[in-house]
Amino acid sequence: DAGVIQSPRHEVTEMGQEVTLRCKPISGHNSLFWYRQTMMRGLELLIYFNNNVPIDDSGMPEDRFSAKMPNASFSTLKIQPSEPRDSAVYFCASSFRAGAFEQYFGPGTRLTVT
Amino acid sequence: TQLLEQSPQFLSIQEGENLTVYCNSSSVFSSLQWYRQEPGEGPVLLVTVVTGGEVKKLKRLTFQFGDARKDSSLHITAAQPGDTGLYLCAGPINDYKLSFGAGTTVTVRA
Q: In angstroms, what separates the C-alpha of A9 from chain B's closest C-alpha?
């Protein structure tokens, strides 16, 4: 079975532009996580979905960030407008069920905002 | 403030040497996980330890969970260049959320 799929792998955009990151979780997994990784702060959980419903978005930095999961096989993370401090690697991860802490990460999207 | 403190932050060794990285906390965890992240990729789960004092072996990697379930270690025997990567420990802080350590960057020189 394919692992977690993320697109694009790299994104370079100018400050003020809208950025949309995409994720396809592993089939059959009903928990989905979006993380951000930076040198300064390490891996931070942004938002957690269970059965397509956002359960915890306390890690979303501010209103410029939004995430959706319209169905079990697709999620998006959107930043509008983007700022240079949003530059980071964004990971999507999925797990079989809530409470199953084994998480499977995608390859990440490296975002650079100039 | 990190719940899980990892040490050392960086480790560079020669192929064939042994190494140990540590993951410590003042909090008790129900389980701890170790992930390895290679450059340009996402973290990959190596192991989950769940019982205090537990030792798990994965080929040349040995993982130990402290008796009090506050710390863990990862020992690699006869390291190879393929062991190069960022090693992250993580523990659950509620029924869905993991807290990750800052990681140890391991470089194995050929």
A: 9
Q: Which residues of chain A have pLDDT under 50?
A: none
Spatial distance between the Cα atoms of B20 and B61, rounded to a whole number of angstroms: 10
Q: Are residues A86 and A73 in contact, defined by beta-carbon separation less than 8 angstroms?
A: no
Residues of B whose CB is below 8 A from A102: 33, 45, 48
Question: What DSSP character marks residue B97?
Answer: P
**Interior CA angle at A93 toward A89 and A98, to 5°?**
145
Q: Measure the CA angle with vertex A72, ends A100 and A93; round to 5°.
A: 45
HSE value, Cβ hemisphere, 13 Å, CA-based, for B53: 1
3 state DSSP class of A86: helix
Residue B2 in this model has a pLDDT that exceeds 80: no
Q: Does A81 touch chain B (CB under 8 A)?
A: no
Taking the mean position of all CA atoms in its chain, how far away is CA B55? 13
Give the 3-state secondary structure percentages of chain B, helix then strand then coil, rounded to 5.
5, 55, 45
DSSP 8-state secondary structure symbol assigned to residue A20: E
What tens digit of pLDDT does each residue of A80-99 get? 999 999 999 999 999 987 76
